[in-house]
Amino acid sequence: MRPLLITPVAVALLALSACSGTREDGNGNPPPPPPACTATTCGTVLIGLTDADGDFLSYSVDVISLELKHTNGDVVETLPEPQRVDFAELRDVTEFVTAATIPNGNYVRAFMRLDYSNAEVSVELGGAPDEAVILGENGDFLGIVDIELELDAANNIVVASAQPALLQIEFDLETAHAVNPLTFPTTVVAEPFLAATIVPVAAKDFRARGPLVSVNTTAGSYVVDLRPFNHPDADHGLMTVATTATTDFEVDGQELVGAPGLQAVAVAGAGTPTAALGEFNVATRVFTADRVLAGDSVPGADLDVVIGNVIARSGNDLIVRGGNVIRRDDSVVFARGDIAVSISSNTDVTQEFSGGNLLDTGDISVGQRIQAYGDAGSSNVNPDLDATNGRVRLHETRLVGTVVDTFAGELTLDLFEIDGRGAEFFDFNDTGGSLLTDADPNNYEIDAGALDLAEFDVNEPAEAFGHVAEFGFTPPDFTANTLVELAAIRALLGVSWGVGGTGAPFLSMSSTRFVLNIANPDLGVRRHIEVGPQRSDITTLGAPLTIKPDTGPTLFAVGRPGIVEVFRDFASFEDQVSRLLVGGSTMHDLTARGSFDADSTTLTADHMAVTFRTP
Fold it and tell me: Among residues 102, 248, 392, 459, which one has the fewest Cβ atoms lying within 10 Å of its Cβ?
């Protein structure tokens, strides 16, 4: 496991505080509630939670409240009930947590209250999930944590009656924690930080879950009462889900596409559990589903469900090591041990975007991400799931590795990880039917079909999205739907300086780029850039690393004690950084994400954040 280092920075950084601070009046009392809403005085704000990439297998804490502050000083609560959230599960998705009706106007601050009292956190050590204990910087156990976010002018939440507003909040696990695997149990020092934007930067699916309210087959849409994170009875506002002729449906185990799927949802009736994944159009404020589950196809509706990757298979016995178990009572647990899943010839097997075609159990092999439905045992550590008369849904699986070879529609990788789990996690015995044909993680063969392999060079990182090949009949070991070459892989840069920081972090600065001073004697041990499996010390790149802004949606942040300033414009960001350095402030940490060109040692960043200490 690569080390996690505390870096108190993040895009649109949230300042950690010991109390509610600005949410109270001068006497410590909460402000009066805002005026009652009417159809013309109030609008809807959609708030989604997500997570940046991190090394946690699970990170469950309780979100107690989520408040917004109006320019007139009014504070409104948008979260009707506390929610148990596993932020690690949100790495590749943004979950709509509320569609709150609040007074119209501009909102300039957000407050989130977290409760770590019953936090459950797991990291991967030695190829297996390991329990971790969360501590504060002083070594004490964390309890209630209040986090305040100050939104810049370009990120004000504008609520109006005409259409819903959007706020995406990102819990950046990667940049806010330090893991110490040498303690028992493993300890994690946390300083929770969040990022927030009204225009999402990273491309991710959005998810809307909740019981069905109504269906409009003419408009091709339906309405749900938002109920995030498998909460059994929370009502977090009404939300419309649009569908298309290509939307993939699974309703009570039946695979359908387009209008027939929506009609099946309508027949199921009001109150039917639903879960939709898709895209949110920022311009039109429309959420369009690519995939919809309804009825007992929704995890926890009528069947127990195990979600995770198959790490081994023997006959009809599958092992999922470290996975989420969702029970009929809507309880959710991350089981750190081995989950034994039993299948049979009576087990129905489906695959997302398969056009409704039924598969068979032979299509379930090692590495495949699955959602298995059946009857689960009572253990929360090593549960079993009997799916012999249930079903298994195959999800798209993500591979990361280094290119070994390309040839005639085939890409061979030296696997680094599968869905964020180390390749050493998986037992590929019997995947090919013999020792000679079993999948080899060092030479993992991917059927690329007609995908273009021209930009995939040997020894360079690559990503593949698709499905594992049939069990017992490899190679090839995997069929790719999408391939991502080096230039398109998202890179992470993390740099820290010593206790006193530095007054000279850059060799040069301008309104278009920063050039890091890699010879600075104050550089700390955190000075790496990561691209997939490749992790490089920036002092060994051969030339100073340049950071320049991307041309798409971007966010840049400057953090100081008690205040964080956020910029959408790199020139304004550079101007403030320069002012602070000239004024004698010292830079302590820098984090940036984007695409990295090794030849020019240039990171084109869409996220960048720095922290300062003032003199």
Answer: 459
